[in-house]
Specification:
By secondary structure, the protein is α/β, with parallel strands linked by helices. The protein has helices at 7-17, 19-25, 34-43, 47-55, 64-68, 84-99, 133-153, 178-186, 207-216, 235-244, 267-281, 300-304, 323-331, 348-351, 353-363, 382-389, 407-417, 453-469, 487-491, 493-518, and strands spanning 61-63, 111-113, 165-173, 193-202, 224-227, 252-254, 288-290, 313-315, 340-342, 369-371, 397-399, 425-427, 476-478. This is Leucine-rich repeat-containing protein 14B.
Length: 519
């Protein structure tokens, strides 16, 4: 359905659609019309006009997310369009804003905020070329260094470097762009564009490089820290990180797989875990915590009880939690505030059914996202699950891939899900009866596609028909075979893939060397 446009917005579109005319006329445009023209130019992907608008920006702030979000003149939110043409024009326009005017007195711009962009799977822009978080990090760093080179090469415009603009950005660093970003951060005090890192993600990075660059980001400003794939951070390294760097504003923390492994704990390790919990307790703003694929059996209370603020998001998927862990979560002050919960990889119905439903009951008034993948939920558990979910009236997303449910059980469950008023996204498993009888759960990668595809398609159609008959066209039901979309992984998958292959090769070489020593 088309979004209504005001006459002002229609006029703005007409103005910017002729790029040559618009660029020549900008000097006569009222300052308060620049935001309107920017959104119209972005919608029409008029890169040259966007560049000139930013180059001549007359206002104190330039907040991309706010400018592209819902506005009175055009309510459609364009902040999920990470169009390469438009974003490159924004950033090069910002560089030229610094370079191309003789007097800094005429420049009012103080803050640029790039954090409002949303990286999504389906791009609606015509060019279909995206500039993701990694590429935005790369380009901004490159432009900052270009400005410093300009200063070294010419003294024609010393006033250029009296300008100081804070650029708020979510940085994404891997081995491939590390050197460039590190140089830009190291020299940011000399540059008119001051990179201010609000959120930091690193993948595929040596631990020594991570420790170096995280200090350059000014951690006192950091609100979100994601240490994800192929960063070999273990518990002792995390303790060093928290002892050496303070994160007073940190709201969200994601740790890599296997950060914790209680199966090989010593008495010293137990104290290290307590120290980490106390350090997280000092992060008074922390409300989101993800530590999937660690082994935390019996230690959740030690880690979470020092926290001063209740968690709103908790991901403890595949963490080998026991009954005591779930019982602590169910009775903790976190339970009443959890808006997103991931308990994937835990056999919830066999190991701790009563405390799980207690946890679900306590979080139900606020719970928006629930993920229960590979939890051995069977047909006999569906009625109990329905009872638990019936209180979750604010639930928007439910993901339960990898569970051995029959097509009949899925239909029963879907009939109930239609009653949840704001549920929008459901990720359901391939029905058990679509697989050969010798398949065991959890299904490994080798057997994932050994199912009757025609039967699956028929069942999927029947499930969508249930939604249609209940007038729930607003609900999307799907089976993403390779997991939910991750924009960061998608953008850097070639680099991560190459790294995994090299890692596998190194492991084989070490194994071969060991065999040769014994032979």
């Amino acid at each position: 359905r088309a979004t209504m446009k005001s006459l002002r917005f229609i006029s703005a579109e007409a103005f910017v659609s002729n790029a040559k005319f618009a660029r020549e006329s900008l000097s006569g445009v009222a300052h308060n019309l620049f935001p309107l023209l920017f959104k119209a130019s972005y919608l029409l992907e008029q890169g040259e006009v966007i560049h000139d608008l930013v180059e001549n920006w007359p206002l104190v702030d330039f907040n991309v997310g706010k400018l592209l979000g819902t506005t009175v003149d055009y309510q459609e939110d364009l902040s999920h369009r990470t169009c390469s043409v438009c974003l490159e024009s924004c950033l090069t326009g910002l560089r030229d804003y610094v370079l191309n005017h003789p007097s800094p007195c005429m420049k009012r711009l103080k803050v640029v905020d790039l954090t409002g962009m949303k990286d999504v799977e389906v791009q609606l822009c015509e060019c279909k070329k995206t500039m993701g978080r990694w590429a935005r990090t790369q380009l901004l760093s490159k432009l900052c260094l270009e400005l410093l080179v300009y200063r070294q090469q010419t003294q024609r415009n010393p006033d250029t470097f009296e300008i100081s603009i804070d650029v708020l950005i979510d940085l994404f660093v891997t081995e491939r762009n590390y050197e460039l970003v590190a140089q830009a951060l190291l020299k940011k005090h000399c540059c008119p564009l001051k990179i201010c890192c609000v959120a930091f993600r690193c993948d595929n990075l040596a631990l020594q490089k991570f420790f170096y660059i995280i200090k350059l980001t000014d951690p006192s400003l950091l609100r979100k820290l994601e240490i994800v794939h192929n960063v070999r951070l273990e518990m002792e390294h995390l303790e060093i990180l928290f002892n050496s760097i303070h994160f007073p504003l940190l709201m969200s923390l994601t740790l890599p797989a296997r950060t914790f492994n209680v199966r090989r704990f010593t008495a010293t390790d137990e104290q290290t875990l307590v120290n980490i919990g106390e350090k997280m307790g000092e992060m008074t703003q922390l409300t989101e915590l993800s530590m999937s694929f660690s082994i935390l059996t019996g230690r959740i209370q030690k880690l979470l009880s020092p926290l001063k603020s209740p968690l709103k998001m908790l991901d403890v998927s595949n963490c080998s939690l026991n009954h005591a862990d779930i019982a602590y979560l169910a009775c903790s002050f976190h339970a009443n505030h959890l808006e997103a919960l991931d308990l994937s990889g835990h056999n919830i119905h066999d190991l701790y059914p009563s405390v799980f439903f207690k946890l679900l009951s306590h979080s139900s008034p606020v719970l928006r996202i629930l993920t229960l993948e590979d939890c051995n939920i069977q047909d006999s558990h569906v009625n109990m699950l329905i009872l638990g979910l019936s209180h979750c009236q604010k639930l928007q997303e439910l993901k339960f891939l990898g569970n051995p449910l029959s097509s009949l059980a899925l239909k029963h469950l879907f009939t109930f899900l239609c009653e949840l008023p704001v549920l929008k996204n459901v990720e359901f498993p391939v029905p058990r009866d679509c697989y050969p009888t010798d398949i065991t759960y959890p299904i490994d990668d080798a057997n994932m596609f050994r199912f009757d595809h025609q039967k699956y398609e028929r069942v999927a159609e029947e499930l969508n028909l249930i939604l249609l008959q209940a007038n729930r066209e607003d609900m999307k039901a799907s089976t993403p075979f390779f997991g939910s979309y991750d924009a960061a992984v998608q953008e850097t998958n070639n680099e991560l893939g190459a790294c995994l292959i090299n890692s596998f090769k190194e492991t084989l070489e070490k194994f071969t060397t060991s065999l040769n020593k014994w032979s």
